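Quick one: Glycolate oxidase from Clostridium amylolyticum, structure tokens please.
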Amino acid sequence: MDYKKIDNKDIEYILSIIQDKQRVFHGENINEDYSHDELSATKKMPEVVIQVLTTEEISKIMKYAHENKIPVTPRGAGTGLVGSAVPIYGGILLDTTKMNKILEVDTENLTLTVEPGVLLLDIGKYVEKLNLFYPPDPGEKTATIGGNISTNAGGMRAVKYGVTRDYVRGLEVVLPTGEIIELGGKIVKNSSGYALKDLMVGSEGTLGIVTKAILKLLPLPKKVMSLLIPFPNLDMAISTVPEIIKSKSIPTAIEFMQREVIVAAEKFLGKKFPDNSSDAYLLLKFDGNTIEEIEKDYEDVAKLCLEKGAFDVYISNIKQREEAIWSARGVFLEAIKADTSEMDEVDVVVPRNKVADFIKYVHELEEKHSIRLRSFGHAGDGNLHVYILKDELTEDVWQRKLEEVMEDMYKKQRELRGQVSGEHGIGLAKKPYLNQSLSPTTLNLMRGIKSTFDPNNILNPGKIF
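--- reply ---
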């Protein structure tokens, strides 16, 4: 790519737009954190970092960058896992975390209008006080809503409620050319031309920069209860999931986990899990407006699990146990990371009835490649998180084994008619596997969309494909 390098003239122009010089960093003043995301091994420093505050600032910067062929990388909290926010061509990095205002809650239309830098954690707390509910529930609560929209984040409640895309009603977006457009709105139904709003969700900052989002809310369920169900082995646990889905009792979440991950979480938190004696567990959450409504659902599922060979059913009907279970589940990624020297992850999604096949194959790969693998995930929607651990391997051996394991896992994903990513996106790390997974015609359509939005290929270049 033949991009312009930032010079003093560019810095002067940027400072003429951003009056507050303390929000512009260049050269040695740039924090090293901006060179990487949460997990990606790829690092590259931007030439300039701008902490933007308004749509107008972003618009002017994008217009200038477009005219001068300067690459621009949008970034939220940097919690991504595939390198989407890594500025691989240098250029300008736009940090949107200071655009963190909740602009409006509309209790008549049940919508929340926010800037992209608002944290998922803060959205949850804010709407809960109003007895409202934003259902998408990705594990990383310190991620920004802009980042969630960019990757179409899913999370644990997707099995009942769906993913981020299902809750984005409207977007304000700055295009790579600097133009500002509005997509969707507070309307519930829309058959007015191509669904550009839905195209923007999951585009990983390659088609436009989200500067405002209108989110759909629901009334807050009054009661929540969880079941922790130990099984003799993971195969028995996972094979029970399709039976639960087929029953009329749809849980809010169906998670699977194994003993090794629970023990790592206990060590990380310094707290005991309610039970860690079994090899495998299902963790189910139910919500509703009355205890009676929830009890009917969980009793049917508990009976089904016991019939399928579960050892027991632990009911978290007290707040302390509920918090103990879900706080452990919330730190699985951090606990695994703390238990090894380095790691990489696979975020595949397969049909729900193929989850057991994929996890069984993961166990075979541990032996085949003599490397530690840890897995957990959303059994209810087929989205599996598998972590490959470096431990004491030398760098050469680690890189070789990492590539071999990845190749095997993504080959299995294709065999099972799954896809490369369920919620983390493609970014840099998963590009080769997306190319293998999609047809040339499909990839060419995606490239055509990109070139229409971004003719000079300046916005987050080098990502996805």
